[in-house]
Amino acid sequence: MAALLYLHGFNSSPNSIKATQLKHHVQQHRPDLTFICPQLAATPATAWAQIAALCDGMASPFGVVGSSLGGFWSTRVAQLYGVRAVVINPAVNPHLLLQDYLGEQQNPYTHEHYLLTGQHMAELAALRVPEPANPERIWLLQQQEDEVLDYREALDYYRFARVCIQKGGDHSFVGFEHYCAQVIRFLGI
Asked: Which class is domain 3-187?
């Protein structure tokens, strides 16, 4: 059975709005797919180890979708596992973006407390894909009024990928539920 792997963003969870919307779409319209959305560890090296273990264990075809920091992870999965990815308002340079969040953190979904450190930024920098080698396997969904990320970074980084840029919106990607069927078709699963 083919699988759809959804990777949530920084301080998020499988209970995020987009993860829930995609899960419900799969349940209603594609029950032949296995929907996988793990609670990722708060720290980068541990989160990547989780993701890699999941991908290594996949016996069937799969595609990956990720939002924000999950988009960063999804790009790495596409690069290393040769699968298609949909990245939603992705964090292109999280090692720079998250500098403002160093220190004590609490995940609002899980209530987990942890310390975000400079070492974690170094881990993110080391895990970054310098430039996607097969950008045709990636679809960027980006809204210009993202209040967290500068959308132009993603447009530059994913310039050879399939791109859907929208005026307005925000970091949550307003209206994502209308893209679920197209996302699955793009992933080819």
From this structure: alpha beta
- Predicted structure pTM score: 0.96
Instruction: Kindly list the distances between the CA atom of residue 3 and the CA atoms of 71, 79, 104, 189, in Å, as whole numbers in the listed order.
Output: 17, 18, 35, 7
Backbone angles phi, psi at 185, to 5 degrees: -60, -45
Query: Distance (Å, rounded) from C-alpha 177 to C-alpha 172?
Result: 11
Q: Give me the torsion for CA of 182, 30, 78, 138, rounded to 10°.
A: 0
Task: Round to whole Å and give the CA distance between 143 and 164.
Answer: 8
What confidence tens digit (pLDDT) does each residue in 4-16 have?
Answer: 999 999 999 999 9
At 14 the three-state DSSP class reads coil
pLDDT digits (tens, 9 = 90+) for 8-54: 999 999 999 999 999 999 999 999 999 999 999 999 999 999 999 99
Domain-wise residue ranges, the chain? 3-187
Cβ neighbours around 127 below 10 Å, total:
17
